[in-house]
Amino acid sequence: MAAAPRLYLITDRQATGDRALATVVAQALVGIAGSGLAPGDVAVQLREKDLSGRALTELARELRAVTAAAGVALYVNDRIDVALAVGADGVHLGGTSLDLAAAARVAGTLAIAVSAHAPAQVTGLQSEAGGRAAFALLGPIFDTPSKRRFGAPLGTAAISEAARAGLPVIAVGGIGPDRVRELRAAGASGVACIRAVMEASDPAAAVRTFCQELSFSN
After folding, report:
1. With a threshold of 0.90, does the pTM exceed it?
2. 147 is catalytic
């Protein structure tokens, strides 16, 4: 089973300031070198829910080439078919995706990640997935506009509670590099970010700072 990433970059092509998504991701991944983290500690999730299957597949192929060149894992949100078609490393299941057991039956060798919005949702994920769940993405931990529809921020105590289930937990929601050490101390295996990298004028510098903080928090 694939290891949980320490840094999980989630895409949002609407946040790149008209820069091509593959270009921004490629620039971001340059920041791994010399940061203290290895490429295998980083993963990218392609999360562009509004795209048709064909358009998503085309974009996924671009990101597969970029991530493969950098030695970084690629996850595709929801679409197991697209993930398999482009040779991605994993699929990320949200609240409206196939249930875990069904996904595990058709995902082949893909790693399976799952979104959760409460610690209780993390409990039992491994048994439901037959041991196939790679990690859970839990949030929002801190306030962020894109996650307000999921309710009030959970706070760091939720990380500690969810981590007791034994599945690696990645924190998401309002996270900048300044929060990394606090979240790691609470039990997070890693952190996820969207706009902190997608909007950055220098994506490589943004990733480098995240990676440095993660390497200090071992």
Report:
1. yes
2. yes
